[in-house]
Amino acid sequence: MDMQTNLLDRLFDAGLLIDTGVDGLYGRSGAFEDVIARFEALIARHAPEATAEVIRFPPGMNRAHFEGSGYMKSFPQLAGTVHSFCGCELDHVNLLQCMAEGDDWTGKQEATDVVLTPAACYPLYPTIAKRGPLPEGGGLFDLQSYCFRHEPSKDPARMQLFRMREFVRIGTPDDVMAFRSDWMERGSTLVSAVGLDVELDTANDPFFGRAGKMLGNNQREQKLKFELLIPVTSATTKTACLSFNYHQDHFGQTWGLKTVNGETAHTACVGFGLERIALALFARHGLDTADWPEPVRKALWG
């Protein structure tokens, strides 16, 4: 049995995760949720002193905004759409018959105006662009959302539906680069406080196709993405639990985001994979939080 399946089975046996019959789609116990809530409180204590605007979007976003983001150009393999039945009564009868016979019943499902949110920050940019030019000093935003990525796996750290906590900085290149640099230090300090070993490394997003390999290489060469790697299912092949991303002016150009001086805004974000961090904590310290080391319990529970 590999280490990924072994950890997943132990989490199921302990009742921390609940098997739904679909890889990467799990229920969470109260104990699992409590760890996430405590860690989010720890994030808040390490957040910058400047007050961020708190926004919570649902796990679905406007399909037109999704299409405008360019996500399908780079990550079509990960996207998830919301479809609904749009047929007549006869179509309904046929649907029920297909279900009863075990056949494909989705033929009359049509795309709605909702797409599953791929990253917590994606609904933010068109929202802020509608407000007009940014105020003096730009913007800082605190986000959290369930996100969807279609990559079913036995690896418990690669869920299809998971939560992402993000801080997003919008402003001048100097503003957003300073923000990202600051959070790379803060993130390492924060995770070390709960007894986890961390490694910071350059990274790239999983761009699709042959052209995607070139995009990934360029992203690494320009050091646009860093990840904080933490052991979850393997001490050698570590899991990215935090990411620090500089988007340059991509979203600024896409949505017409402007600084107070009328220049195209740049953006950067820090993202916390909340389920991954919880999994790292359970893998490192054991499945019963009452037995976790006292310094870790003090950092999380006070």
UniProtKB/TrEMBL annotation:
Would the keyword Ligase turn up in this protein's UniProt record?
yes
- Which keywords, in A-to-Z order, does the entry hold? Ligase
Q: Which domain of life is it from?
A: Bacteria
| One Gene Ontology term of the molecular function aspect | ligase activity
Q: CDD domains, alphabetically? A: Gly_His_Pro_Ser_Thr_tRS_core (cd00670)
Entry keyword DNA-binding: no
What protein is this chain from?
Answer: Amino acid--[acyl-carrier-protein] ligase
